[in-house]
């Protein structure tokens, strides 16, 4: 019980100052706003025809704003879905070895969230002094519904599939940012390096959770959860929609000479852009998830939204 009470204080941002993110020491290097914050290939506009024609300062600022949004997205997923999901699992007496891993998993997610939020606040206090989310926005009813679902892991085991996809994508993106480290802002490089070190273990625990949870789900419920996962990916995770458009709105607010309509049209076209889609949930980005999907015919419903999954299913299922 003591662990859960302390964990919930962390998850809701009420932890003590000693357990919170570190305060930069005097003399610590300032954020370098002359550099990219994230590898360009991971930003939607980079894959559009209009991007190369934008002024360099606009491309740089777009990259920085999108990186802030990406940090928000990670923190939102970790606190809105993953943390309550892990806490609920710990209350269900998982196998001893898995329980130990889940406690470490949870603690590391709290550290990640603190790091990403602290970095965003340092980079854009004018955006984050009023709260931890500026680009990621959801109605209160939806936030409440997500939290309620995350607190019922045996009723909503699809969330561990979503977690595996998100953790693998985050792992791939962190590796990609480290490959471009010489081009990127050092604080962001350091944050991705720390994140990468933990995410490798998280993917393993995700798979352990699937081995524990998914066999308990009956065939009809498996099909239902596969459809729910398909809907969630398409509505909130696959293509740039609400939050990514808020990044565009902020960019236009900072550079009023920009015409927002062409930018929005280019974003709309990304749904048929193979290079962009390959950076999301392709077989290269999320190999463990694809390997797992291939073992379960119920996930054939994802074949039209996940690249290459249709070819995997065409090859048949293991007996």
Automatic annotation (TrEMBL):
Q: What domain of life does the UniProt record list for this protein's source?
A: Bacteria
Gene3D superfamilies noted in UniProt? Ribonucleotide Reductase, subunit A (1.10.620.20)
Q: Which Pfam families match?
A: AurF (PF11583)
User: GO molecular function terms here?
Assistant: oxidoreductase activity
What is the protein name given in its UniProt record?
Uncharacterized protein
């Amino acid at each position: 019980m003591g662990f859960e009470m302390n964990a919930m204080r962390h998850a809701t941002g009420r932890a003590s100052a000693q357990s919170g993110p570190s305060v930069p020491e005097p003399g610590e290097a300032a954020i370098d706003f002359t550099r990219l914050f994230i590898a360009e290939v991971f930003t939607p506009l980079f894959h559009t025809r209009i991007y190369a024609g934008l002024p360099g300062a606009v491309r740089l600022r777009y990259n920085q704003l999108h990186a802030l949004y990406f940090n928000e997205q990670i923190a939102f997923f970790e606190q809105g879905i993953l943390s309550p999901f892990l806490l609920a699992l710990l209350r269900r007496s998982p196998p001893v070895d898995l329980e130990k891993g889940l406690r470490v998993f949870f603690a590391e997610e709290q550290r990640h969230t603190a790091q990403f939020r602290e970095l965003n606040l340092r980079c854009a206090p004018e955006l984050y002094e009023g709260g931890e989310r500026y680009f990621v926005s959801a109605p209160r009813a939806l936030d409440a519904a997500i939290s309620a679902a995350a607190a019922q892991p045996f009723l909503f085991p699809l969330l561990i599939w979503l977690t595996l996809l998100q953790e693998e994508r985050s792992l791939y993106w962190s590796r990609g940012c480290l490959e471009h480290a010489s081009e990127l802002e050092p604080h962001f490089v350091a944050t991705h390096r720390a994140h990468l070190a933990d995410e490798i273990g998280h993917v393993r625990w995700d798979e352990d959770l699937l081995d524990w949870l998914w066999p308990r789900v009956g065939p009809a419920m498996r099909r239902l959860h596969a459809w729910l996962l398909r809907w969630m990916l398409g509505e909130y995770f696959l293509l740039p929609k609400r939050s990514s458009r808020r990044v565009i709105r902020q960019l236009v607010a900072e550079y009023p000479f920009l015409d927002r309509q062409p930018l929005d049209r280019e974003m709309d076209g990304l749904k048929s852009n193979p290079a962009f889609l390959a950076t999301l949930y392709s077989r290269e980005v999320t190999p463990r998830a694809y390997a797992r999907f291939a073992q379960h015919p119920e996930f054939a419903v994802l074949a039209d939204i996940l690249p290459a999954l249709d070819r995997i299913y065409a090859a048949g299922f293991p007996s």
